[in-house]
Every structure is written in structure tokens, then in C-alpha cells.
Amino acid sequence: MTTPEDEEMAPKTKSSEETRKVLVSLHANVAIHSACVFMQGIAFTYLSKRLGVSPTVWGYLNTCAALCHLVGSPIYGRFGDLYGGRMALALSFLSMFATCILLAVADSVPMLFISRLPLVFMQVMPGAHMVVADATDAASRSDAMGKVGMFFGIGLLIGPVLGGWLSEHYSEHLTCVVAAVLSLLQVVLVMLFVPAQMKPVSQEEHGTKSGSSVFDMKEIARLCSIPQVKQLLVIRCLSLLPSMLLQSTFPIIMASTVEWVRRTAASSWRTSG
């Protein structure tokens, strides 16, 4: 016999039609976010050049961004465990909004560093995978995960070109404002189309979450110490290292050495991505 508490913890979406709506909105959000990332990336590169950032300081800026991602990733994962994929995605998009707004008003090198700080919680792909894991069953999960990557690629094609065009014809600051507005739109889409709870939660699990904290370092360390998790972390770090080296050095070389216009440079960045 079910109790009122069990009914509250039951999934809100069960039908395939409702699941399809969740996944469609998720794919659209991933594509928009990917475009925004590369839009602000183009603006960030040329704004850094205009403010006289040297290659050494550029390296520091990228290290700062990477450090923010590193510190925020386990905390973000814990946040998703406690509050669900919808709130995790909304937090990521709000972080992107904050990054773009800070970059839009940046007029000095210290402001460039400050604009990297909200990247701590800009972890959209893990958030998207949380939603996919909750919304799909084992048979359809791989297909849904693959489509998330495909739509990220679509945004990668659109973002650099749109960012380059806006920066060339208007300014880097306007490019960041457009990306910020799109990020706020994504928050609205997530709250409208992604349910707060999509799978059943047991009484024991619900009680465990209620007594937990986002900043529970012991729990985060326990999860990271699981052998399979450690293996995946090592493999992911090694596989991402060459790509990160290319993507961190290519933009500043492109902006400093090759005097391309922004739109042409954006197309080249899209190809490298």
C-alpha cells in the first residue's frame, strides 16, 4: 500500500511522449549552450588581445578557468545528486550567464580573471547526462547520450560563426550580452520542460539526501575512491589533455600571429573544435 510520501517521491513523467519532450528541450539547450560557449570564447580571445594580454598571462587565464572547472566538478556532481538534474542544469546556465555578463563589462585584465570564476559551476554536459539518465531506460540511454553529443556539435558549428560576426560588426561586449540573454532563456526552458523528479526515490535514499550537504567532502572523496571511478577519471584526463592544449593555445596564436578578421578566425576555430 502506497503512502502520501511514496506518491510525492514517484516520478512525475512516465509516458514516452513526456520523455520525448524532456529530451527535445534538453537537446535544444545543449546546442544553445554550446553556441554560447564558443561565442564568449571568440569575444574573450579578442578582448584579451585588445587589453594587451601576453601569451604568459593568457596561459594563466586558461589555468584559472581549468582550476575552476576542477574544483567545481565534484561539488556540482554532489549538487546534482541532492537536487536533481533540473536544478543542476539551471545552475550551469546561470553560471554561464554570470560569466558572460562579467566579460561584457570587462575593461581590464583583472576583470578577465574575475569573469572566469563562475565557471566553477558551468558543468552543462554532466548536468545533461544526469537528466538523460533519469529520463531514459537502459535500452534507450546510449542513443540519448549520443544525441546530446551531436547537438553539442551543432552548437559548436553555429557559435563561432555567430560570435565572430557579432564581434566584427558590433563589439565583443555585445557578443557576450547576446550569449548572456540566451543563457537566461535556457534557464526558463529547463524550468518549464524538465521535471524536478523523473524517477522513483526510495525512503532510505530520500532520508540520506535530506541529511547530506553539497560540500560533504567525505562523501565526495568516497565516490572518487571507487576503483571504477578512479579509472574513468584517469582515462578522461589523459584523453582530454591533447585537446585542451590545442584549444588553449590555438586562439591566442590565431589572434596574435595571424591577422585574420574575426569572422574568418571564427570559422577556423570552429574547424579546430
Provide a descriptive summary of the structure in words.
With 273 residues, the chain is mainly α. It has helices spanning 4-8, 16-50, 55-104, 109-116, 124-135, 138-169, 172-193, 203-210, 217-224, 227-256, 262-272. Helix 2 (16-50) crosses helix 3 (55-104), helix 2 packs antiparallel against helix 5 and helix 3 crosses helix 10 (227-256). The longest helix is centred in the N-terminal third of the chain and has 50 residues, at 55-104. It starts with a helix and ends with a helix. Residues 4-14 have low confidence and may be disordered.
Any chance you could write out the topology, listing elements then pairs?
Elements (H helix, E strand, L loop, with lengths): L3 H5 L7 H35 L4 H50 L4 H8 L7 H12 L2 H32 L2 H22 L9 H8 L6 H8 L2 H30 L5 H11 L1
Main attributes of the structure:
about 80% helix; mainly alpha
Helix run count = 11
Helix content: over 70%
Major β-sheet annotation:
none
Query: How does the helix and strand content classify structurally?
Result: mainly alpha
Order of helices and strands: HHHHHHHHHHH
What is the β-strand count?
0
**What is the average of the pLDDT values?**
79
Distance between the ends: 54 Å
Strand content: under 5%
Evaluate the radius of gyration: 20 Å
In the predicted model, the low-confidence regions spanning at least 5 consecutive residues are: 4-14
Give the CA-based shape: globular
Summarize it.
The protein is mainly alpha-helical and 273 residues long.
